[in-house]
């Protein structure tokens, strides 16, 4: 895997169900899914880098533009963490998150990020 850093099983999410619930709830479930991913990333980074309420408020005010930036930042930080743990350097999650979000497919980026988190829950 990626070295010794592990996440609690509470950060594991069934990806298919996450996508299905997001579609069924017209995106509302994705808000809670992002909150869980922010908590997981903060745990991995060992600091409070991702603030759910700030993200939610500013994303609302900017009509989603801040969310696009956060998808890029989130993916970039995930890449950096995985490289530090000895993982591959060819993932480019930041660019992937940015491009998918620009085309309204951020739920796909969330699913890809979640796959990495699920690997880290062992």
Q: Would you give an account of this structure?
A:
The chain has 122 residues and is mostly helical. Helices cover 68% and strands 0% of the residues. The chain has six helices and no strands. It has helices spanning 15-24, 28-45, 52-61, 65-84, 93-102, 106-120.
List strands and helices in order, with pairings.
Blueprint: H1 15-24, H2 28-45, H3 52-61, H4 65-84, H5 93-102, H6 106-120
Helix pairs in contact: 1-2, 1-6, 2-6, 3-4, 4-5, 4-6, 5-6
Unreliable sequence segments: none
Indicate the radius of gyration in whole angstroms: 14 Å
Query: In DSSP terms, counting alpha (H) and pi (I) runs of 4 or more, how many helices?
Result: 6
Strand content: under 5%
The count of β-strands is 0
Helix content: 55-70%
Q: Could you report the average pLDDT, rounded to the nearest whole number? A: 92
Helix-strand string: HHHHHH
Q: Kindly report how far apart the N and C termini lie.
A: 9 Å
Note the overall shape.
globular
Main sheet specs: none
Tell me the structural class: mainly alpha
């Amino acid at each position: 895997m990626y070295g010794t850093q592990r996440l609690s099983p509470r950060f594991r999410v069934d990806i298919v169900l996450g996508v299905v619930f997001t579609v069924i709830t017209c995106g509302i479930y994705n808000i809670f899914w992002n909150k869980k991913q922010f908590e997981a990333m903060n745990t991995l980074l060992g600091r409070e880098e991702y603030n759910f309420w700030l993200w939610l408020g500013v994303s609302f005010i900017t009509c989603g533009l801040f969310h696009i930036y956060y998808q890029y930042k989130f993916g970039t930080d995930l890449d950096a963490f995985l490289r530090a743990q000895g993982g591959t350097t060819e993932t480019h999650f930041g660019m992937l998150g940015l491009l998918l979000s620009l085309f309204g497919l951020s739920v796909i980026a969330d699913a890809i990020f979640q796959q990495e988190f699920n690997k880290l829950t062992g």
